Amino acid sequence: MIQPKTTHGNDDLARLIIEGDIIYIVKTDIAGKYTYVNDYFCKKFGHSLAHYVGQDSMQSIIPEDHLLCLQTVAKCFEEPHKAHQVILCKPSVEGVVKNKWEFYGVTDSDDKVVEILCVGYEVSKILEQRNQMYDILQTFSDQNERLIGFIQTIAHDTRANMSNVIGLLEILDSESKEDSEILLSLARNSMTKLDDMLKGLYQTIQLKLNQSIELQPVMVSEVFDNILQGFKQITSQDTIEIIDTTAQKIIQTNPAYLESILFNLLTNAFKYRSPERPCKIILRLREEEFYQIIELEDNGIGIDLETKGKQLFGAYQTFHKNQDATGMGLFITKNKVKQLGGEIKVQSKVGKGSVFSIHLPKIQISSN
After folding, report:
1. Domain 212-368 is classified in which CATH homologous superfamily?
2. What is the pLDDT of residues 299-341, one digit of tens each?
3. What CATH architecture applies to the domain 8-122?
4. Which residue(s) pair with 344 in the sheet?
5. Cα–Cα distance between 168 and 185 in angstroms, integer?
6. Residue 68, SS3?
7. Helices vs. strands in the chain: H and E counts, helices first
8. pTM higher than the cut 0.90
9. How distant, in Å, are the alpha carbons of 136, 140, 202 from that of 143?
10. Cα dihedral sign for 93, 97, 101, 106?
């Protein structure tokens, strides 16, 4: 048999390839019986070298690929020094795997084929790694686009608010006391908006940095009641009705995150209530097979989801003529829900109201 000449460095590299978990190395005699398989082949297909040596190689190939394999072997006799490629499926300890192989005819000193050398690797693993790499690159691309958009929005809004303040201050000295008070009020409003925007940015950054979230049993009604205490001035009005149907139900979640989520949704329900009818807000909790679902329903002015649905949870997105809106509430809410492993959905009709649904993974609550 012809043996290739190698240096010590090449020998080490060859040994790494043959013995490593990279590729399969297989040899058969001209009758198709195994004479050698490397460790990776043994590990992948569940048997020892002793088991394979002398066994018909066709036994480790699915019957549908037998003819294709034999045709490729025949080419090795016709052109022994050329690589002949073929894709074969083999049953393994993990199920049937698809492998790409290169078959070579190994010849003796008379250039007669005496063995078949087969070098293979998993097509499925290569495709999986390629797809993972694509997903990583796509994630980086998406994050880069969002970052650019985020920076552009912040720069625009910061410049707009600061320009308002600078312009008002420039004309402040030349105005009467009464006009000065009005100008100061306008400047204060601009600075408040800027402060709200920066607070929203800070919360967003904190969400990205906080990868570890502690979960614990939480009574939804208690969290909701705590939030309502801060809205007493609004809820004391006769035109507002709030119904909590969650009773004493407990879910496994992070209380601070849940309070922030419900606070943002409740704030929007109050902010965008309809002037045509008394405000009514209903809190529900229901369960599905894998999720616990919190719903907050209102009968407010509603949202046109056909035109605004895709932007609804984006940063700095506002959809109604409300001067106090920063466009960060739903963006932060969605990110907090995602960090809890859940998702947020919305149903809404203009002039009828909205239902926001928080789908959180169902987690077994310990009796301890």
Report:
1. Histidine kinase-like ATPase, C-terminal domain (3.30.565.10)
2. 999 988 888 777 777 655 555 555 554 556 788 888 888 888 8
3. 2-Layer Sandwich (3.30)
4. 358
5. 10
6. helix
7. 11, 12
8. no
9. 10, 5, 17
10. positive
